[in-house]
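Hi R.,

Here's the chain you asked about this morning:
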Amino acid sequence: MISFSMLVDFQPDHPEEIKSWLKRTIESEGKISGDIQYVFCDDNYMLEINKKFLRHDTLTDIITFPTSVVRNVISGEIFISTERVKQNANDLKLSFEQEMKRVIVHGVLHLIGYQDSTTSQKQQMRAKEDYYLHLLP
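And here is the predicted structure, written out as tokens:
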């Protein structure tokens, strides 16, 4: 089950469509959708998570924690800073909604196993994001 929790004043547009889209994304990758919890928060909350669990003292738009215990079943917690997404959208001259959808699918792609540490991994991740964004109704 995919669920959304809000620690800030934010609600994704058409949440049921987004959940269905994410399930289709997972299935397209040959995986099964398990329990995925999205938590939308602010920069301060995200910074504390980053410090506590990753020992990074930096702001980021997303942190993903896989919790799958069964192979091919995708489960995890995905934290998204709405403040960071808004700033990134501004910097990229995109709408907040466009950037949020990219970050939302980015989290699922991380749970599936895609990484973005190297240039080639970043290119592959961006191609996957673009592909699945085009499948969103």
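One quick note: The mean pLDDT is 95.

Cheers,
M.
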